[in-house]
Specification:
The chain is about 80% helix and about 0% strand. It is mainly alpha-helical. About 50% of the residues are buried.
Amino acid sequence: MEDSVVQEKRSYKVLKDQRQYLKLIGSNIINRFGDSLDAIAFSWIVYEITQSASLMALIIAINYIPTMILQPIAGVIVDRIPKKRIMVLCDIGRGLVVLSVALLYMWDLITPLYLAITTVLNSTLEAFRVPAGLAIVPKLLDRDKYTVGTALNSTLGRICEIIGLASAGSIIALVKSYGALIIDAATFLLSALIISAIKIQEHKSEIKQNFESVKKGFVEGLHYLRSNHLLIIIIFLGMFMNFAMVPLNALSTAYVVDNLHSGPEMLSAIQLALVAGMALGSFITPKIDVLGRKKLFIGGGVIVSIIVSALWQIPNIPGIILRLAVMISLLVIMGIGVGVQNVIFSAAFMRHIDKDLMGRLGGITNAILVAAMPLGALLSSIAAKIAPVPVIFLISGVFSIILYFVMMRIRILKEL
């Protein structure tokens, strides 16, 4: 009987009665499609305007600063006001910001400074949107369905990313980079519309929002975090996951242009391969977690790190077709590892936190996680000045492999 219950919780069929959560997934996957276009179009615009891998990495670093500073405070506020309203307003705001970039670029008025400003604006809105999106999940999804629910959300999101990335090159060729950003802006607005249709009972907290109340809520979140040793370890794992992927994220466009001597089609193809692997990894995680979440998490990380290291040799492969085939194959495998890690991390985080504290803990945690990313981006920016991008990938991958082997000795990870 116990086995059948466990099997049921690993089946996606158990989500058919979680209708409001499925609406949330609907908004998320639409956002994913838009973001996949943005990932190609915006990075291409930034590199075209700056003509510098170092400046590009610097703008990526700037993107993380508002999250680090504002999200712990935003998380406290989110816990006390309706999450749905915050999500709708933030999606509308982000859509308008992206639209402004598209129009100014179309009119040839865009500058590196404006790109940095809009990056900060979007990141500020995300500082409220992310904890709200996290805190609303336990109110829409049953606790015993966290892993399978997270896996479905991630899998469908990645599939939409695949569609977006697969069509990104053609869309950019047809309507230019600014046209792709306009589509991205439209997806934000559509997401806001779907979220507004979610039926959920939320009540505004009677606690007055002022400096003292926000400070008290923030301190309560810190005390909860400090008393939960497993949560601290989970946060460390997420922080390391982010740090390990920063060089690839920050320098991929420069790598494609300067080392692989290719254009946006190649960038789209390799991102498509990575996301396809992530979708597959997310999908299979509920089926294979009987192997042990610790083993799966660390194993996935080692695979990712080995492949990041291997990227330094890709430019030396003769022939563009063979080079592309090897690159795509490696990134699919890397994506599987990342997908498994993401599902295990997200489900473990929700499983070990009181849902009434989800907003503030989500804000504090995400700020800590993101702290690794500007550091990694800044280091990537500095490294790009003194070393070729493939060498940076090699060093980053080897360092990550060493740390993942160290993690194998952390016993508490068995509770993931």
